[in-house]
Design a protein that fits this description.
It is built from two helices and no strands. With about 110 residues, the chain is mostly helical. Helix 1 runs antiparallel to helix 2 (about 85-110).
């Protein structure tokens, strides 16, 4: 139940629509074409946001998988004593990239 306002004196407290044919919730002066354009743009933007986020998540998942696999290949042999310092450096850089990508995936999924 909505009380009557000054610009709609003949509206009852029972929630009856205004007598002049206006619909509550629609801004005065907006045509159907303007409303359609607004809804169309909002829907398009929402779809591209969803698809863009999904694509970004897939990219980061691939980066994390590649980075972490390179990290295991570079750090593992060094820990067993058969790897070089260069392999360790590459492994650490790949580990940093893999962890960064995994954190970004977590943040995108939990937003």
């Amino acid at each position: 139940m909505v009380p009557a306002t000054d610009d709609e004196p003949n509206r009852t407290a029972t929630g009856d629509p205004p007598s002049d044919g206006r619909v509550r919730g629609v801004a005065d002066g907006r045509s159907d074409a303007d409303t359609y354009d607004l809804v169309y743009r909002a829907t398009r933007d929402a779809l591209w946001d969803v698809l863009g986020t999904a694509t970004l998540i897939l990219f980061y998942l691939a980066l994390a998988a590649i980075g972490l696999s390179i990290a295991v290949g570079g750090i593992g042999p060094f820990l067993r004593g058969s790897g070089s310092v260069t392999a360790l450096a590459v492994g650490v850089l790949a580990l940093v990239a893999g962890v960064f990508a995994a954190v970004r995936v977590y943040r995108l999924v939990t937003e």
